[in-house]
Amino acid sequence: MAQIGSFTRGENGIYTGEIRTLTLRVKATIRPVEREHDKAPDHRVNAGNVEFGAGWTKAARDTGAEYLSLKLDDPSFPAPIYATLTQGDNGEHKLIWSR
Question: What is this structure's pTM?
């Protein structure tokens, strides 16, 4: 697993930061949204005015710690990227890529 981004969470619940991959380097926001139904995402991922991902709030089985499970997609990607946003040190949240 590799870290592909870092974010900070504001008082309003919006995460701001940067996503970095081999082909992508963008400033991004992860904003909470009102869910339309049970399977709808809790968050939307945007780079400027372009939405390119969604996130769901999850809890770790062992500790109960909350994290975001994200799915990012862009026409430049061969397939969607799945990642988790977890709390790191000093208020930083780490975006970790996984297959």
Answer: 0.91
Q: Could you count the other beta carbons within 10 Å of the beta carbon of residue 19?
A: 25
> Tell me, what's the pLDDT at 64?
87
Listing DSSP states for 34-72 in one string gives --SSTTS-SEEEEETTEEEEEEEEEE-TTT--EEEEEEE
Of 28, 57, 30, the C-alpha closest to 42 is: 57
- The CA angle 86-71-37, to the nearest 5 degrees, is 100
CA distances from 91 to 11, 17, 28, 79, 88 (A): 12, 12, 17, 31, 6
- Within a 10 A sphere around the Cβ of 91, how many other Cβ atoms? 9
